[in-house]
Design a protein that fits this description.
heterodimer; A: alpha/beta; D-Maltodextrin-Binding Protein, domain 2; 2 domains; seven-stranded mixed beta sheet; about 20% strand; globular; B: alpha+beta; five-stranded antiparallel beta sheet; five-stranded mixed beta sheet; 9 helices; 14 strands; rod-shaped
Chain lengths: ~350, ~450
């Protein structure tokens, strides 16, 4: 099964991703409202549209601050930040990433600095590690479907139903289901890893079904959502609920399902790197993200779910918190196992084998 | 003597506090040390458990060692949820399979292979606790020891040790407070006999020369014995002095009597009128001197008998009657009406008849000498359980402001030169020795009254 050839092929794919992924960064500047006195450099693996309202609001509080945002895919942010930490260089003032396991790994390697502030206590216990990595959002991991392409009755409500649906109606869904490419996306890997831990049998069947259905893999939630909205894909699996809900608000024909067996909940992480040029400003920004004001801006314009789990209107499925199906991914040292190089390698091998190379 | 010695209580308290503080310091150090040990032990087990779990996850597949790091191992380590975790897994060939390459093998230099080690180390500039376990493979394709090294920072250990230490500190503090309280109580109790002794000595009459009789602990016995020894010596001195006075008075009496007789023999007729005046003065002074000598002798006797003579039953009526006979001389220059009112039945008190008689005689003598121009009335009464002798005269009496003084020795030397100033004090002393009192009733519609009350404690002379 795990022959030498496949491993080599995988390694090449990884190298390719690394080479092509690295330049995929863009920088956006938000000039200071008044005379510029300082610069906050945010290195983020978060969509700009979600960050922008928060940045603008933060600038109301700190009008002399120019904010620059450098956008990454999660894995690129991780490798760049890790490299800068090892080399003793400075890379920005704040890291924002949905791939909290990578932030935890960076913090464990001594690349984060401990920050303080009254608002930091608002982070739930499971979303704070060492006062270094803070989760500041509550993001259920959902399935989405194209409302025009599928009737509500057909829509799977659990992970198992999804696996069954793909198996039962393989021809219809072949090439029309999308999910993260876990090799490129740190968040995709983190979610798949947690799926595997939740239910070993269901995960195996789901993986098999996805492989048979020739699942379409993409680097990012937004790309899958674009294709679901356009009708090229019928189902998107394991996507960030906040991004999907933003599409719903924009009127795209997308339905959102919180899986009823269990719903993973991710808290987007914020971290101040050890050699941040403006640690004071960075600390203020992280405090802002967790503050009443920052949270309310986030809930209304960026992430839509409250840190307490309150969901916006129009989400199908039970309330994740009260029904007890929420599985928050705890921001803590357990995530180091996720980040173990050997383990990751094996996981990706198995995933690639099941999902990519299973011919119809 | 200017520098005052601190009190025994302060000394004991300070010393005990010092000992307790030292003990507390030792205990707290021990508590801190053992708390660290306990915290290390608790977390070492987790660390070793995690290392064993990781070691257990090593498998040989197709002749190659494979490791799928178990999440449970990290969950175990995450019990100390603020600590950083470092690990390294080495295959039997010594190649790092996964983890932190920089994490050194703590047993690399140890010659004898050990299965499990936990020790302190430093990694990445932080203090860490390192566990190292070995898993032996005897696979046909792969032989040797796989090594798992797991290190964790020590924040949780320190926090637990701090908490344990704090608890011990609270306990030690509470014990210290109890011990201090107990010390205060015990020291106060132990020093109580000193206070009792002090009270007993302070409340003594300055004239009291009896021995101190207070029960004291053995440690104070020499102190009391020394005081008593001193009292005995003092008493010897006083007795010697009294004896001397008695002897002197006695020795003076005979020449004085002769002198008196000689002056009496001198006839006023033979000398000039101016010499007569001088002669009278010589006679008066001689009588006064003779009387003083007698009273000194009387006082010495009274003082001697107070100590030496046991009490007996005394009939006050009989005693007073005889005292009247002795005290009122037949050869008085003026006529005085002396009346004695006595109850029909005898008035019995317990006391020394000689001293009591001396007291009564002195009162009567005083009345004759200073008071009564014409009348002295002596009344013997029994009031409830007190026996009372009242001596009333029609003389000028003593103004109340002098009352306290006249009962003291030489407190009121009479201005007319007739009194010695000892009479009333002798009477008062005798009565006091008998548990009685001497007081006065101011001259009103009756005459001035001197009251001798026996066994009456309520109306003593101020």
């Amino acid at each position: 099964m795990t022959g030498f050839a496949t491993r080599l092929g995988f390694a090449l794919a990884l190298m390719f991703a690394a080479i092509t992924g690295a330049p995929a960064q863009t920088m956006t500047r938000f000039p200071a409202i008044t005379t510029q006195v300082d610069t906050l450099s945010i290195h983020a693996a978060t969509d700009l549209y979600a960050l922008e309202p928060l940045i603008r609001d933060f600038q109301q509080l700190s009008p002399g601050t120019m904010v620059e945002i450098v956008e990454y895919v999660t894995n690129d942010l991780f490798s760049t930040a890790g490299g800068a930490c090892d080399d003793g260089g400075a890379l920005g003032d704040v890291f924002l990433s949905s791939s909290v396991d990578q932030l935890v790994k960076l913090a464990n390697d001594g690349c984060a600095q401990r920050i303080e502030g009254a608002d930091l206590a608002r982070a739930p216990r499971w979303a704070n590690w060492r006062d270094e990595v803070f989760g500041f959002t509550f993001e259920p991991i959902v399935m989405v479907y194209n409302r025009d392409g599928m009737s509500e009755a057909e829509v799977p409500r659990t992970h198992l139903e999804l696996a069954e649906l793909l198996r039962r109606d393989a021809d219809r869904y072949r090439g029309r289901v999308g999910t993260y490419d876990v090799r490129l996306s740190g968040i995709g890997y983190l979610l798949a890893f947690n799926d595997a831990r939740q239910t070993t049998t269901t995960y195996g069947r789901l993986l098999e079904s996805l492989g048979r259905a020739q699942v379409v893999v993409r680097c990012c939630t937004s790309q899958i959502l674009d294709e679901v909205a356009a009708g090229r894909l019928l189902i998107g699996y394991n996507l960030l609920g906040s991004y999907a809900y933003e599409r719903v608000r924009r009127g795209q024909p997308i339905g959102i399902v919180m899986p009823a067996d269990y719903t993973l909940v991710l808290s987007r992480g914020a971290m101040v790197p050890i050699r941040a040029p403006n640690p004071g400003l960075a600390t203020r920004f992280v405090n802002y993200l967790l503050s009443e004001r920052g949270q309310s801006v986030g809930r209304s314009q960026s992430f839509f779910f409250g840190l307490d789990g309150s969901a916006p209107a129009g989400i199908e499925g039970p309330d994740v918190v009260t029904s007890g199906i929420a599985r928050p991914i705890v921001v803590g040292p357990t995530l180091l196992a996720v980040q173990d190089a050997a383990r990751r390698k094996r996981f990706l091998e198995d995933w690639s084998q099941s999902v990519i190379q299973t011919a119809p | 003597m200017d520098r005052r010695e601190p009190s025994l209580f302060i000394r004991l308290f300070a010393l005990m506090s010092l000992v307790l503080a030292f003990g507390a310091a030792v205990l707290m150090t021990a508590a801190w040390y053992s708390a660290r040990q306990a915290a290390d032990q608790a977390y070492d087990r987790l660390l070793l458990g995690a290392a064993y779990q990781i070691a257990d996850a090593i498998q040989i597949q197709d002749g190659q060692p494979e490791i799928e790091l178990p999440v449970s191992a990290f969950e175990l380590l995450a019990l100390s949820d603020r600590d950083r975790i470092f690990y390294r897994v080495l295959d039997p060939a010594g190649h790092t399979m996964t983890g932190y390459e920089r994490l050194d093998d703590p047993a690399a230099e140890t010659a004898t292979p050990v299965r499990a080690i936990v020790e302190n180390a430093e990694f990445d500039g932080e203090n860490v606790r390192v566990a190292r376990v070995v898993r032996r493979f005897d696979d046909p394709q792969m032989r040797g020891d796989a090594i798992v090294i797991v290190a964790q920072t020590i924040e949780a250990r320190r926090a637990l040790a701090r908490e344990l230490t704090l608890r011990s500190f609270i306990l030690v503090g509470a014990m210290g407070a109890i011990a201090i309280g107990g010390t205060i109580f015990a020291v106060r109790r132990a020093l109580a006999p000193i206070g009792r002794l002090e009270t007993a000595i302070r409340q003594r009459d300055p004239l009291d020369l009896t021995l101190v009789d207070v029960s004291t602990p053995r440690e104070l016995a020499p102190f009391v014995a020394e005081i008593n020894g001193f009292i005995k010596r003092l008493r010897g001195r006083v007795e010697l002095m009294q004896q001397f006075i008695a002897d002197a008075a006695h020795q003076l009496r005979t020449p004085l009597a002769a002198l008196e007789a000689q002056t009496d023999l001198l006839s006023n007729d033979d000398v000039s009128p101016s010499t007569v005046k001088h002669l009278d003065r010589v006679r008066a002074r001689t009588r006064q001197l003779s009387r003083l000598t007698n009273q000194l002798l009387s006082h010495a006797m009274v003082a001697h008998r107070e100590r030496a003579v046991a009490n007996s039953q005394v009939d006050l009526t009989e005693l007073t009657r005889r005292a009247l006979d002795e005290a009122i001389p037949d050869t008085l220059e003026r006529d005085i009406l002396v009346t004695l009112h006595a109850p029909p039945e005898p008035l019995i008190v317990s006391g020394d008849p000689v001293n009591l008689a001396e007291a009564v005689k002195n009162i009567l003598d005083n009345a004759v000498r200073h008071g009564a121009p014409a009348r002295i009335t002596v009344r013997l009464l029994k009031k409830s359980n007190r026996a009372v002798i009242e001596v009333e005269d029609d003389g000028p009496g003593i103004p109340p402001e002098q009352w306290p003084r006249v009962v003291q020795r030489f407190g009121a030397p009479s201005s007319d030169g007739k009194g010695s100033g000892l009479g009333l004090s002798i009477a008062a002393e005798v009565l006091e020795a008998h548990g009685g009192a001497l007081f006065f009733i101011e001259k009103g519609s009756f005459g001035f009254v001197v009251v001798m009350s026996l066994a009456d404690e309520e109306r003593k002379v101020a």
